[in-house]
Amino acid sequence: MAHLVLLLAVAICAARATGEITPAEGAAPADIEYINPPSLLNATELGYTQVVTAANVKKTVWISGQTSQDTGGNVVGTTLEEQADTTTANVKKALEAVGATVDNIVHIQVFIANYNPDTDIPTVAKVTKAFEGSNGTFPSAELIGVQSLFSRELLIEINAVAVLP
């Protein structure tokens, strides 16, 4: 086990030295590292990061799946793009409720009802890029196509994990 930890530490130091690991700079509130290993697709252009680590964290925040609903439970918007805007705004409101911002997000999951990769990718890219941190970094992300969400009117749901120092 000690050998594995030592090897991992050496690999991280080497990756930092070669620029393969970019430490979060500026506004990142915890020790968060955004890593796009050269052995994987550089996902930054797509609006996410392959690996995110967080250290010196005092609080982890799990934000339940947010949808395009107002405070009365009414669905806002009828298209995926309209609902994506409201859903993204609702995630940001949930962050604000705990004193966090998009800079604190380390992971998001995006669920799309009746997902069609031929038509939905531009909207999904817009959603993931809405969570770009102030230092130009993105959380890790998952896109999951589903048959339906809890209401047939809803087309998108996003949950998130954030960390606070």
TrEMBL record:
Sequence intervals crossing the membrane: none
UniProt xrefs under InterPro entries: RutC-like_sf (IPR035959), YjgF/YER057c/UK114 (IPR006175)
Q: Which residues form the signal peptide?
A: 1-19
Origin superkingdom: Eukaryota
GO molecular function of the protein, one example? deaminase activity
Please give one Pfam family short name.
Ribonuc_L-PSP
Q: Which UniProt keywords apply?
A: Signal
What family does the entry list? Belongs to the RutC family.
Q: Can you list the GO cellular component terms from the UniProt entry?
A: cytosol
Descriptive protein name: Uncharacterized protein
What is the protein's species of origin? Ostreobium quekettii
